[in-house]
Structures are given as C-alpha cells and as structure tokens.
Design a protein that fits this description.
By secondary structure, the protein is an alpha+beta fold. It contains 9 helices and 17 strands.
Length: 391
C-alpha cells in the first residue's frame, strides 16, 4: 500500500481521510488500492480508514480478526451491531469530509461499490461523504512502465492476429468455402492462446446488421455466414497471460468485395474522421499542458458525427478507461451515458471508438490512447481505409 502517496493525495483533495469498506468481496477496488489479500474469509463487514494525517486504523469482526492483519495500524474488533456502530464512530473520530467508493446519483457506476445503507451510517455521524473517483484514478488506473510495455507487446500480437483474421476470411471467400462469424471468432481465440494472450470473453465478429449491435457476440448455434457483399466488423481485446497485464482493445472493419458501396464508404469516413478529431483533441491538449475531462473528448467525436447527420445512430460513449480489466476505473470519454468530469491524467490509457449503427450495417473504429508526461499517443495501428476482401 502506498500510504504516503495516498495521504498526500488526500491533503491535495482537501479531505480528512478515505474510508474503505467491504463485505463478501463486493469492492475489488479496495483490495487493489490497499494492495492486500485478506488473511481470513470475508463473510463479515470490515472497515479500514486512512486519515490524511496519522496512522491508519481498522475495524473487523471478532471471528475474522485476521482479515486486515496485512495492513498497518491498529485494528479494533466488534461482535454485535451496536459494537460495530460504535467502532465506526471511533474509527472516524475527528473527520468531517471523507472519500468512499461512492458516486453521486451513480453517475460513475465503476466507482459505486459501497451500499447506500453504509453511506447513510457515515452521514448519520455528520460526516460528508464524497466520491473517491479522483483518488481511484491515481491509485488504480495509472500504469507502471512494465504495464505499458505489456500493453504494447499485446498490441503487436493482437494487431497481427487481426490482420491474419481478415486474411483468413478473404481466403475462404475466394476459395468458395463456407465461413461464419463463429468460425472467425474461434480462429482468433485459438491464435490468442498460441500467442500467450487471454481475454474475458469475445471477440466480436459481426456482419451487416449484427455489426450494429455494439455488444454482439456470435454463438456456435446462432452465427451468420460471411458472404460476398457483407460489411464485416471485428472487435477484439486481449492482454498477455501474465500477472498485472493490461488490455489492448481494437475494432476494425472490412468489406467482402473489391469495392465497398458508397454509403458504406461515407459512414466509414465519418467514423474515421470523428475518431481522428478526438485523438487530435487529446494530443493537442496534453501537449499544451491543458487539463481535459473525459466528457470533452466525447464531445469532440460526437459533435462531428452529429453535424454529419448521424447523431442518433451513435448511442454509446466515445471511449472507456483501460486497465487490468478491459473496462478500467479511470476517466471514460463520455458525455452521453454519463457526464464524466474526471480529469485525464498521465500514465492512463483509454479507448477512442466512435460508431455509427444503421439498420443494415454498423461501423466502429477503435484505437487505444496512452497519456504520458506531456504527450499522448495511439499505441497500435490505425485503420484509415476499409479492408477490401476481394472475393
């Protein structure tokens, strides 16, 4: 646990402390930020408080007294609910404003891990509870140099597999062999395993109207055949099968033929240019040292698509935080599903993936953007033209 850094961050935020709480491992963020593994089962509630000044302290149930033993500070125990209530009050004595894994109106659901009842208990002690969202970015979303290198290595592998997957489809079409979305997904999964990559699910391989479902995933018994004249979208995400590895997440689009129809070309161009505007906005802002929030990046892409007449067909955020989970806990590029006012900070990575989803076909183009010290960069290959799979 980075105690000194946490306390410095609390002082910078003007907070008295940060209260961590869990029951039955409902808050994985707590374990990651505190960097510990409980030394007993977590079937009872535990509390751990880090003040801006002074030593941390904890509160655990008597039958699970060793839960927090790996963490510094004194750990009081309780058995009855009355003892627990009194123990929490003692734990927070002197505090007026504290952070918890809470999000006002659940505007950032990735942060909203603590139940409303526990928030009520703390507020009942005349303590103001604020969101730990900014703190979590500092202690759960920033990448180490090793994590960045693992991301870049995963990116090289995934980009090669993506290229091979489109080539695999083209070869099948030219040979007159039947090939389905499911077949291509399994081809990609096999290549992931061969190259030491892992993923939680997917990838998304979708043709035509299926590509207009952003979370479509083919199934063995319900998968479309890929044919000449189809728009083909591939969305794949994976990370190295190593401890602390982080994800690489991309989406590319092809057309099964020698020339895509004008409508497909037009929509592709709008999505590509919206993506590039968002990326340029981030690069310029980081290079100029300007503070930027997630919602502003979303605005850069969304306004372009809206002005092109396709606003109603872009119905998800422009991008999401990327980390050990493919959807991380940092700032999202979002002013649609939420108004994400979190600042984009160095050593974090996120996707930029605008899309237009029409009844007949969908186009999404996704890249990953890493923000370093004074610069931002796309970490892998960028698609500028539709991949033509000549049949």
């Amino acid at each position: 646990m980075k105690l000194a850094e946490i306390q410095d961050a609390l002082k910078a935020e003007g907070l008295d402390g940060w209260l961590f709480f869990d029951h039955h491992r409902r808050d994985p963020l707590a374990y990651r930020v505190l960097n510990f593994e409980p030394q007993s089962p977590v079937t009872r509630r535990w509390y751990y408080y880090i003040p801006a000044k002074g030593d941390p302290r904890g509160l655990v149930h008597k039958i699970e007294a060793e839960t927090l033993s790996a963490l510094p500070g004194k750990h009081a125990t309780y058995a009855s609910w009355q003892e627990m209530s009194a123990g929490v009050r003692t734990l927070l004595q002197g505090a007026r404003t504290i952070a918890m894994q809470y999000s006002p109106k659940c505007s950032i659901p990735y942060v909203a891990m603590v139940d409303a009842g526990t928030i009520d208990v703390v507020r009942g002690m005349n303590i103001e509870v604020v969101s730990s969202a900014n703190l979590l970015q500092l202690f759960d979303s920033r990448w180490s140099a090793d994590e960045l290198e693992m991301h870049l290595e995963a990116g090289r592998k995934v980009d090669a597999i993506r290229s091979a997957a489109f080539q695999h489809v083209g070869e099948a079409l030219r040979a007159g062999r039947s090939i389905s979305e499911w077949d291509v997904q399994q081809f990609i999964r096999a290549r992931f395993a061969e190259d030491g990559l892992m993923t939680d699910h997917g990838p998304d391989v979708a043709v035509n109207a299926n590509a207009s479902n952003p979370h479509y995933e083919p199934k063995q018994d319900s998968s479309a055949e890929i044919r000449k004249g189809d728009v083909l979208l591939m969305d794949m995400w994976a990370k190295l099968d190593r401890p602390n590895a982080v994800y690489y997440d991309i989406t590319w689009v092809g057309y099964c033929g020698s020339q895509a129809p004008a409508e497909v070309e037009k929509v592709f161009g709008v999505v590509r240019d919206a993506r590039d505007r968002a990326v340029a906005f981030v690069k310029h802002g980081v290079g100029a040292g300007r503070k930027m929030c997630g919602y502003e990046v979303d605005d850069a892409a969304r306004s372009f698509i809206k002005n092109a007449g396709f606003g109603e067909f872009f119905f998800h955020r422009t991008g999401h935080s990327i980390g050990n989970d493919v959807h991380g806990t940092g700032a999202n590029m979002d002013n649609l599903e939420t108004h994400d006012v979190r600042e984009i900070i160095p050593q974090t990575c996120f996707s930029v993936e605008p899309g237009i989803y029409l009844p007949k076909f969908g186009i999404r183009l996704e890249v990953n953007v890493y923000v370093g010290q004074g610069e931002a960069r796309v970490t892998g290959e960028m698609q500028d033209k539709i991949i033509l799979l000549s049949c």
